[in-house]
């Protein structure tokens, strides 16, 4: 058995680190595969009610029967635990995974606040640490299967929304604003941020759009009218709806007891919230608005076809012991023999020099039935198909055993074929 080098200078440790990184990548993809819709709630400006909107979206969807996770990614100013009346610390399970706080049967919450021994202590972290924490909030938390993961980010276009966009390739943004021009100018920045970060926008929510007078029922435009809707039209993004200012929302937030969203929901805020939730559910029903670029879609996971027999051979192109993304230019191939649904043996073979059409023929001659690859040109795929060899593209750059075992267990997650030929 290989032992770790105490000097940390030889390849053993580097390889172990690489394997750990690859396993972590696989864990992240597997977690994301189990979450259907991921929504990042953001705002250009502070205090517009972004955390309230995130909380009510999550709480409301959970009350409608959806399985919802709410992730508080506002690491410096987490307010979700307060709004939901969550106190105390998180539990950790035997596998050292964080167990989210269960708010009701369908709603689970994760916030940095629940990791702080002193609730008033300040978190002083720079970007890379925050990126790591957000990544762990996705991959190391026992979310289980979710219909929606709602992520609350701090205001502005800083590290946190960028990290979320990088870690969760199929996340969609919900942008919250109030109707006055000073908030709307920041919203335009948020929209442009999303476009630059290739983060598709589900739509815009206008919060505190007016105060409904409890005496005469007329709406008093606290911050002007219709600014959100007009901005959405001008910037060509969907408008999801507006939520009025209602003093009960402040009281409920301070008391940690959100207003109940149900079919008998009463009051201007809850009535508008119901409309907003319907719009969100509608927009999330497949397919989500396609604003994605090629680069984004390359990370979208897809169904993996299964082999019909228990005994077969798998070929994987290699570079430095891991799957090589460029099929035609790999150094070697790992060929693994599967018998009775288990890896029986593994060998490595050097292919003949690269020439068009040579590799598919050579691989088929090795008795291979399945190729697991990153990117591959369409011509090579066709040549394999002609020889009865199945091809699976878009697999992650992991070691062959991890890939084949994941394939056998039915949890290999693949993205798009990223070949640029
Ligand atoms: N529609 C509403 N009606 C009444 N009060 C509201 C409404 N939306 C938000 N609030 C209140 O406004 C205050 C600020 O809201 P919230 O904390 O959600 O804003 P935020 O944009 O997340 O702030 P931050 O910039 O600190 O992250 C809270 O007291 C909240 O209860």
From TrEMBL:
<dbReference type="InterPro" id="IPR000808">
    <property type="entry name" value="Mrp-like_CS"/>
</dbReference>
<keyword id="KW-0378">Hydrolase</keyword>
<dbReference type="InterPro" id="IPR003731">
    <property type="entry name" value="Di-Nase_FeMo-co_biosynth"/>
</dbReference>
<dbReference type="InterPro" id="IPR036105">
    <property type="entry name" value="DiNase_FeMo-co_biosyn_sf"/>
</dbReference>
<keyword id="KW-0408">Iron</keyword>
<keyword id="KW-0479">Metal-binding</keyword>
<dbReference type="GO" id="GO:0140663">
    <property type="term" value="F:ATP-dependent FeS chaperone activity"/>
</dbReference>
<dbReference type="InterPro" id="IPR033756">
    <property type="entry name" value="YlxH/NBP35"/>
</dbReference>
<keyword id="KW-0067">ATP-binding</keyword>
<keyword id="KW-0411">Iron-sulfur</keyword>
<dbReference type="GO" id="GO:0016887">
    <property type="term" value="F:ATP hydrolysis activity"/>
</dbReference>
<dbReference type="InterPro" id="IPR027417">
    <property type="entry name" value="P-loop_NTPase"/>
</dbReference>
<feature type="domain" description="Dinitrogenase iron-molybdenum cofactor biosynthesis">
    <location>
        <begin position="321"/>
        <end position="408"/>
    </location>
</feature>
<dbReference type="InterPro" id="IPR019591">
    <property type="entry name" value="Mrp/NBP35_ATP-bd"/>
</dbReference>
<comment type="similarity">
    <text>Belongs to the Mrp/NBP35 ATP-binding proteins family.</text>
</comment>
<dbReference type="GO" id="GO:0046872">
    <property type="term" value="F:metal ion binding"/>
</dbReference>
<dbReference type="GO" id="GO:0016226">
    <property type="term" value="P:iron-sulfur cluster assembly"/>
</dbReference>
<dbReference type="GO" id="GO:0051536">
    <property type="term" value="F:iron-sulfur cluster binding"/>
</dbReference>
<protein>
    <recommendedName>
        <fullName>Iron-sulfur cluster carrier protein</fullName>
    </recommendedName>
</protein>
<dbReference type="GO" id="GO:0005524">
    <property type="term" value="F:ATP binding"/>
</dbReference>
<dbReference type="InterPro" id="IPR033913">
    <property type="entry name" value="MTH1175_dom"/>
</dbReference>
<feature type="binding site">
    <location>
        <begin position="44"/>
        <end position="51"/>
    </location>
    <ligand>
        <name>ATP</name>
    </ligand>
</feature>
<keyword id="KW-0547">Nucleotide-binding</keyword>
<dbReference type="Pfam" id="PF10609">
    <property type="entry name" value="ParA"/>
</dbReference>
<dbReference type="GO" id="GO:0005829">
    <property type="term" value="C:cytosol"/>
</dbReference>
<dbReference type="Pfam" id="PF02579">
    <property type="entry name" value="Nitro_FeMo-Co"/>
</dbReference>
<comment type="function">
    <text>Binds and transfers iron-sulfur (Fe-S) clusters to target apoproteins. Can hydrolyze ATP.</text>
</comment>
<comment type="subunit">
    <text>Homodimer.</text>
</comment>
